[in-house]
Amino acid sequence: NAARIVRALFEVALRKRWPAMTYRLLNLSKVIDKRLWGWANPLRQFSVLPPSVLAKLEEKNLSVDKMKDMRKDEIGHMLRHVHIGLKVKQCVHQIPSITMEAAIQPITRTVLRVRLNITPDFKWNDQVHGTVGEPWWIWVEDPTNDHIYHSEYFVIQKKQVIPKEAQQLVFTIPIFEPLPSQYYIRAVSDRWLGAEAVCIINFQHLILPERHPPHTELLDLQPLPVRALGCREYETLYKFTHFNPIQTQIFHTLYHTDCNVLLGAPTGSGKTVAAELAIFRIFNKYPTSKAVYIAPLKALVRERIEDWKVRIEEKLGKKIVELTGDVTPDMRAIAQADLIVTTPEKWDGVSRSWQNRSYVQKVAILIIDEIHLLGDERGPVLEVIVSRTNFISSHTEKPVRVVGLSTALANARDLADWLNINQMGLFNFRPSVRPVPLEVHIQGFPGQHYCPRMASMNKPAFQAIRSHSPAKPVLVFVSSRRQTRLTALELIAFLATEDDPKQWLKMDEREMNDVIVTVRDSNLKLTLAFGIGMHHAGLHERDRKTVEELFVNCKIQVLIATSTLAWGVNFPAHLVIVKGTEFYDGKTRRYVDYPITDVLQMMGRAGRPQFDDQGKAVILVHDIKKDFYKKFLYEPFPVESSLLEVLSDHLNAEIAAGTITSKQDAMDYITWTYFFRRLIMNPSYYNLDDVSHDTMNKFLSNLVEKSLIDLECSYCIEIGEDNRRIEPLTYGRIASYYYLKHQTVRMFKDRLKPECSVEELLSILSDAEEYADLPVRHNEDQMNSELAKHLPIEVNPHSFDSSHTKTHLLLQAHFSRAMLPCPDYATDTKTVLDQSIRICQAMLDVAANQGWLVTALNITSLVQMVIQGRWKHDSSLLTLPNVEQHHLHLFRKWNQGKRKHLCGGYQGPIECLPELIAVSEGKENIFASILDRDLQAVHITQAWNFLSHLPVIDVSLSIKGSWDDSSQEQNELPIPTLATDMRDDKKWIKLHADHEYVLQINLQSVQMRHHKGRQDSKAVAPRFPKAKDEGWFLILGEVDKKELIALKRVGYVRYRNAVSVAFYTPETPGKYIYTLYLMSDSYLGMDQQYDIYLNIKPPSISAQISTEVSEAVSHLTL
């Protein structure tokens, strides 16, 4: 029993936060486990070394560190046993040891964030260490006050030890004034004696941030009636008669002035109404301008669009446009819109080239919702947008109003200074000013491991629902899709022991059964019957909508959701339970804490202004984090900038746009950012030692220097001879235009070759930096290795836990239409496909820039594969919906031996889509007759709809230029497109050498007959997750040299399109064959190619003078 008792005492000492006692008890428990005294040589833990050798080592009194530095023969000589030296040396290197480095960032004057990098420094041996990992204890102790401020248990895994990969732990600890001289971070192995490490945190150069200014007080005002808007149309949009206290206080500033506003107020205080007031001001005063509303998540954008489409578009007659990764309207729609609702990334991409986009210059107000997410990893984008907006308005001299909405902030003043907000526009209310007061209960739970700890929270969660909200709606937030299921099933088990197990179902059971029939998810069918809903991204869209409706209409009482729901939809509940505050982070492969803003957002969903006089929140946390949450849930959290990590990409965008042309410009650009404001206020957070003018200058110029060197290494920019001027290069422009990270373009430059196969291109696509964040969750490395067995292209077997490998597998599964191991993979595939097209388009630009014909053609094939979800080598007939491999014989067999007498029409077997189009002649009955043996009528109709939407394009070509020496005018010469004999002289077109000509390409759409009304430019792509416009790539190349001469993208061909491509003829006279490829960007098997035969004559002097091709053409060439 000794070991158990000592372990229990160790845990007690750790909870009491006594460092010396904790350390002694942990060592004592290892002494008992290993049956060794603590002062014995650590090598006694290895059974392979003979006792005589161990005795000699102890006699010599050598430490492990000393032995690490000795050579094996030295050890052998010292022990007078030559061969044993190697064995001892191996054992010394197998004792677990780690090195630690700590970086500290002050968050407020009382809280420090510590980033601890831990690198393993030992050799792994399965016989000694097992196959999983080595557990360690880490704690932060204050030697003067003898107290532990933070402790955690963590495991260094085998796969991290072998490559010596560093792990990062991030945690927060309190500090007190006067500052102590130092804290110690101590790491002690859970199993090995003599394996420990210490790292010192020094506070000598720490500068604490400024104290935060006080909050805005809520004034005791008479609630303002809606009549104050002074406009009947606006008044009818609101269901209430009076504004709430917060809205009343800010009404005048928002509706009657143009000054910038920052509103910090707790969730649920009606900030959307504030945004609407500012929008109405624009409609009243500047009706020709545009308003832009930026929300951080697509779900929030959708929610706003659904609400405003009805209220603002239908009732006020204003045009609203959604601009997100899923929905990209055409330029005309954007130009006509009065209100644009968008996500930060999309608006950043659009406003990058503001000089050429008049609608960006017409924006009069920018409303940024949840602006406190500035400190989040996506925050830099918000920072850049605002900095750019201020920059644009200083250039066009038209002020743009900025309105920021956020939760209560600690450092609102800094944010306000940066947004150019004076005292009149700054409203930062304290977190307690909620329309519905909130009662919070925080409960701590012991337990090292995540899953058992979550399981131990189920009963308390059930009891919380019974005591706090027996009949009112309850929201339970959990960290993962799997947890939603496990929690729901556990709650059902507790219900089963009650008198009325269906007490949470608030509708007739028969009605509920009708609903359940329509639900797809099997677990959801079970839980809904008990009045419990589940909500996460893995559910089908229809299921999610069903659950939302049931919960909002109080038909079910409990909704268990993943944390994203807190941001995405506004369903308040009476009680909110936050079950666990960590989530599994696929990138670092461990459980990490939610950002505090997320926890506040979840709590903010408690309390429904219409029904409750009080909301309740129960937060279930790991017991060691209880103090932290106690402190921060009531003390607002300051917002810091995270621009540093992605500064290079944003600098690149400004260099490509021409805003930054020198190092000085780059320095000036940084002074416009929020990062600069925070750097002055909290220098230690950003590793700056003091705030004197020189130090700042040096710090910023180093920063700029480092970013520019990164960009130069990525071939994005060129730094001039004088080391001051900066020129953008093609790769930098490509990265900025397609919104890619500079590392991705660097990888393209290094890995694309003149003749890349589709397989190589697929691997390059998967390795794009954009996919580094794709989550690889718990146990997904095993799922990946299973999935890989069913796919055609092999991947590196040691990398199944890498995001890039998972991306590669998901793309292959998409082409092979393979079964995915779980619903999460379907959502992940959508994420991967979302980004894939712009990455491929950028690859195509890189290949075209290098003049690589083979690679460029293969990239267009890859784009077609992604859109249609088939391999390039599959028959193009398989892109028809419902047509599978085993149906192909029907097409081959068609017309064998019959209908030979029917003249006209295509006769042979059908192998590809164009042949099928020719055969069916636009008649559905002919098409149906091929398939009716094996397919149902519904499926045939779906396939026919696809076929009849396919674009059939007629191409005619001509060349423009001057031939005659004397005449000055331009002539046009048609090119025969039908194949004729090589020896036929008529088709060799005579052109002068080294001379510019223009190839005129006329594309005409041959509509199939029954398409009278089809004006739809969208491609038919059932396997692709979002709408995509149909388009074409025109590639002019010379096959013999495998050289690409020109690339042109053409949009949807409605009736006809004329495209001109300028090219230079070769310098040496002779005969050349150029080929023009017309490649679809949406369909497999619809490509065309035409040969152009050129007979090049020696150059003529006067002709050269006369070919001044118009401006319009010259900027089209690549």
TrEMBL record:
One of its GO terms (molecular function) is hydrolase activity. InterPro entries: C2_domain_sf, DEAD/DEAH_box_helicase_dom, Hel308_SKI2-like, Helicase_ATP-bd, Helicase_C-like, Ig_E-set, P-loop_NTPase, Sec63-dom. Residues 252-427 form the Helicase ATP-binding domain. It comes from the Eukaryota. Signal peptide: none annotated. Gene3D superfamilies: 5' to 3' exonuclease, C-terminal subdomain, C2 domain, P-loop containing nucleotide triphosphate hydrolases, Sec63 N-terminal domain-like domain, Winged helix-like DNA-binding domain superfamily/Winged helix DNA-binding domain. Keywords: ATP-binding, Helicase, Hydrolase, Nucleotide-binding, Nucleus, Repeat. One of its GO terms (cellular component) is nucleus. It is found in: Nucleus. It holds the Pfam family Sec63. Transmembrane segments: none annotated. Its main location: nucleus. Residues 460-667 form the Helicase C-terminal domain. PANTHER family: ACTIVATING SIGNAL COINTEGRATOR 1 COMPLEX SUBUNIT 3, DNA POLYMERASE THETA, PUTATIVE (AFU_ORTHOLOGUE AFUA_1G05260)-RELATED. This is Activating signal cointegrator 1 complex subunit 3.
